[in-house]
Amino acid sequence: MTSQITPVTDGQIAQVKTLVEAAVRKSGLDKDGLQLVIANGDGLQGRLVPILQELGGAGPNPYEDERTKQSYYYPPKGWTVPSFSEQLQRLGNLLPGLTLPTQAPEIAVPKGFDSFAIVPKVSALGRIFSIQDPYGAGYGQVVEQLLGLIDKQRKFYNCRKGELGPNYIRIEKRVRGRLQMTESKAGGDCLVVPISFGNLYAGYSPRNARETALRAQQLPFITVQVASLLLVMPERLVSYDDLWIDVPGDQYDWLADGDWSNSLCFDFIDVRLRFHASDAVYADGRYGSAVAFLGV
User: Fold this and answer.
1) What range does the domain containing 198 cover?
2) Could you tell me if 222 and 54 are in contact, meaning their C-beta atoms sit under 8 angstroms apart?
3) CA atoms of 153 and 295, how far apart (whole Å)
4) Are 14 and 154 within one domain?
5) I need a labelling partner for 276 at 20 to 30 A (CA). Which of 93, 149, 157, 248 fits?
């Protein structure tokens, strides 16, 4: 799975230099100590490269083998992403406080993706729900609001009810950085992006899907985004045999004890949609992670 790489800019390099300069000043090194660092320049570069790759979502994917054969698929009765106008109407009825886009993109949908979708910004949802710090401590509250709307719309079981505080759920730090940067560049209250609602990464473990997406021009979706899409597109998951949906962009801690090794998902159990968590290491052919393509 490859995509065209966008070169870094001179301005970005200048910003990184500024960050390194600030780190040098915070290091507490004196003149002689810093000279030793300069003399060991190769060693410094050798340590900086993997740090930059890790923070920037590059480098080897340690989870690339966590993949199995797809066994569940999109609903068999010809499910597709609703038209742009239909999404606008549904989203406007569900979340009337949003400023919605007015024009559909006139760009081809990339190969492997379903169609363009209208995805509310996390910041906009925080505003209309009156929640502070929606990317951080208040994130779980935004999730709860959207799950509450799903519960009003259809038969639904929230297995994580009461366990969505900041000690339980968070946006993975690299995903959060990419998300905030993407939202800051877009006008209005919504992103309009090509999505895969699970099929592209069917059979991947959630953490493999996240790492693969971060290395491409893609955004691993978080619970807020998947829940928003399910509100607008409830037909996507209506029976046990429909492809279940992993949420690759979030991390979950079952016991709120600092172990963030789990991920969240939506599946269909006992004639109702279910929201719950499982270990992010598991590759299950019944699930596929939801992502967006950002290279348009």
Assistant:
1) 84-293
2) no
3) 33
4) no
5) 93
